[in-house]
Structures are given as structure tokens and as C-alpha cells.
Amino acid sequence: MNDHTTGDAFKEVPVIGIAPLVTPDPDPEALRETVEQIGQACRDVGFFYIKDHGVTPRESAELFQASRDFFALPLEEKLKIRLGITEQFRGFVPLGGEVTGGKTDWHECLDLQPESGRHAHTIAAAAAARSGDTHPLDDPGQWPPALPAFRETVMRAWDQLYGLSARIAAGMALSLGLDEHHFAPYHGVELSDLRMVHYPPYNETVGRAAPEDLPMEDVDHGFGAHVDYGFLAVLQQDAVGGLEVRNAEGAWIPAPHIPGTFLVNIGQMMQRWTNDHYRATWHRVQLPGAVDRYSIPFFFEPRYDAVIEPLDVCCDADNPPRYEACAFGPYVVDLFAKAYD
User: Fold this and answer.
1) Does pTM surpass 0.85?
2) What's the pLDDT score for residue 4?
3) Under DSSP, is residue 19 helix (H, G, I), strand (E, B) or coil?
4) DSSP assignment of 47-81, as one string?
5) Is residue 4 part of a domain?
6) To pair with 230 at 20 to 30 A between CA atoms, which of 42, 212, 257, 280?
């Protein structure tokens, strides 16, 4: 496979219909076309919208309502499951609790994963329990006590998004000329993460409900420029907007909500797997202005014990492997430990 080459810098994020990936016995020509579009998007953009994905507007709305219900709780209730109470880097992060590029991010968030050791009645949690894995991010057991129905809603969405992500990963495998199940042994329930994010109003005229110890002069973006560290992410966002993706010329291209679609992007592990043939792309979120913004990314990650190294199909004599093998679990633990010190 030839090395990644950058053509004209993209001006918009493509929209791809993925019905052939999520329906049984698809038309071979339709599947081929979808796979080709995924490959081109991964090479040229690193982001793409998906439509015809099988998640109904009602199901997405229920998950967003659960997110709004959580962030509407009094701060003392949210702090009951604050990240740091356990050592698993899961739970609630209050406003100003994350810093990107030396600047304070203007958001609060909640990171959730299946409980592998107990209550394994969902597909994802049951899979985690069967795996028998133990690691520093396992089983935080942190759910908001004030919202008894919250966990069921979230885990129902988790199962759906995990399955959808697995099909997208299959499409990526096919786009590389691999068997559609190539990445399946690397799939990791235990490190995948459903994150709810709330960006409160922020501008020159709106009152800023910021912690007293938050240096407002350090606030720069809702979420500063970064690349994701893992496999792939599937994002649901509201209509407020603010997400931007950086193209090869350094220009920031808006990636707004498009009704009926989710936004997919690849992370650094996929870039490593493909030896830079597919690229993880820088992105950021602008301050929300006078309104609340909500988004829900699902991070689909490799197993804790997965070892990621360039695929043979992405290497040749003219393009030798650019990366050493990476043990994903220890890499993530070290990354989180530095981020949340």
C-alpha cells in the first residue's frame, strides 16, 4: 500500500451512508462504494459523517435528555461521582477540570463505562465480565444516585453505540483490503468510554458560573485543539455548533450537527496501525456563546492488553514501519495519569 499523500486540503467533512455496513446481506456493489468512501475520508480528512446508521432520533434524544438531567443536578450531587474518588479515571469532571495546550477548557463532563464485575445484564457489561480482565481502569461503579433510571438509559445506548462502532471498524478493515473481522480481536469493552459533555454559556455579557478558583484569563476554548489517542470515536452533538476540524493547510473547517447523522473520527492508534496511511486529525470546540451546548462522544477503543503496530498491508520497502509496537493499556493509563494529576 502506498504511503499517505495529502491532496487538496478538504473544505468540508464528507457524509457517508453506511446502511450496507449495518444491514444483513448488503448489496456487494453498495458495500464496495461505502467502503471506498470510508477509506478516502480516513486518508484525506480523518473525519466523516455517517447516515443510515440504525440509531433512531428518539433513541438519540433519550440519551441527550439523560445528559441534560445529569448536568442539571446540583454540583454537590455531581461531585458524589467525581473522577478521582476511584483510581479508574471515570466519573464527573467539573467545570475547569480539564486543560488542553495549557489553556483551561470551558466544559464539564462525565465519563462512563460498563461495570464488568457486577450488574452485567447488558451486552457490553456481560462481555467485559466474560473477559476476566483486570486493569487500572476497570469497574469504577460510578453512577449518579439522584437519577435511578440514568444507568439503564446510558447502558442501552452503550450497547447500541458499541455495536455501531464495531461495524464502522469492519468498514475500515475492508477499506484497507483486510477481512472485515480483522480488528475484532482487538475490540475492548473495558477501555471504551461514553462521555457526556456540557458547555455552559460563555461570552462577554452572559454571567459566568465559574468556580472562584478558575482563572478566567486562561479560558480559551470549550475544548482546546487535540487529536484523539485511541481507535475511533462516534459523536452525537446538538445543533449549537462549535466543533471545528483542521485541514492540511491549517484552516479550521466547521463540522456542525447534520440532522440524522453522527460524526466519526479516527484516533492515533488507527494512524499507528495504518503507518500514517490514515491520519488522526486535530479538532477543537469553540466557546458556546450565550447558550448551553451538549455533545456525547463514544470512544471505541482497543483492549487493555492489545498491542498496536503497523499493519503489514500498510508497509513496504519504500514505506517501512514508522512506529514501534505500543501496549495500549499501559499507554492509556500513563496518559490519563499525566492529564489528571
Assistant:
1) yes
2) 42
3) helix
4) EEEEES-S--HHHHHHHHHHHHHHHTS-HHHHGGG
5) no
6) 257
